[in-house]
């Protein structure tokens, strides 16, 4: 599995994935050879693959050495054309056993980092010859990248609103499917040194709080939860994805942050997650879809099927998600 590499400076810290290999074009088919000194239609020829290649016009060949030499050359060219056609390797089509091969590029919400990384390893083990490349970032940033033409096979968002940005622009190959749900907790350093118990404590004077920006799903959920509790918080930082908010707590730069339960669980040796009742008012649905311009649609469909399978639900449950039933 390809590990995320450093992305462009304009994006969140997470990597952008490179495009998947495009399938090579088919080689030309062999044209007929003259079988003797008989008339051949001067306008006849054999086109390349798909009928788009140049025609090979076979003129009448006389007998003798010249005719034999020309016929030999034509035969060799036909043989070479067949050999070239056999060299093409479909990197995005099914393998000999009908399974996917090649690279599948998945754009996924940052909160899916741990669970999708595990599923990527499972996918590669199940489908030898396949590689999963991830781009983990805030769902709003990913949606923008897709609508601006970034090559990707699959999009998994942390909220339907950001998925709608992609579907409304015509970039989805079908109808997105919700595969999991997530909700917020208050992330604090291990041991909860500030003795926080609920959202009301986040308004305590002098307490430093990190939130996600409102345009990303974790920020929108935080706003909904705080409104439900009637609590007003002035954050010291607004992060572009949930990993950024969590990092502020890990680094000791803030006293608390509102993050997803799954992210707090992934950092359980450094972070404690505090449940609060208003979180049930801000549950996020996670939709997934194969993209319309997917370079590798076969592998894309297979990856989505894995996410929605019993094995996928087990991984999501272990990460702290509430998975939904598969097909």
UniProtKB/TrEMBL annotation:
GO molecular function: metal ion binding; molybdate ion binding
Keyword Transmembrane: no
Region (Disordered): 1-56
UniProt biased composition (Low complexity): 27-46
CDD domains referenced in this protein's UniProt entry, alphabetically: PBP2_ModA_like_1 (cd13538)
A biological process from GO: molybdate ion transport
Domain of life: Bacteria
Cross-referenced InterPro entries: ModA, ModA/WtpA
Gene3D superfamilies: Periplasmic binding protein-like II
UniProt keyword list: Metal-binding, Signal
Family: Belongs to the bacterial solute-binding protein ModA family.
Stored PANTHER family: MOLYBDATE-BINDING PERIPLASMIC PROTEIN (PTHR30632), SULFATE-BINDING PROTEIN (PTHR30632:SF0)
Protein name: Molybdate transport system substrate-binding protein
Lineage, uppermost ranks: Bacteria, Bacillati, Actinomycetota, Actinomycetes, Micromonosporales
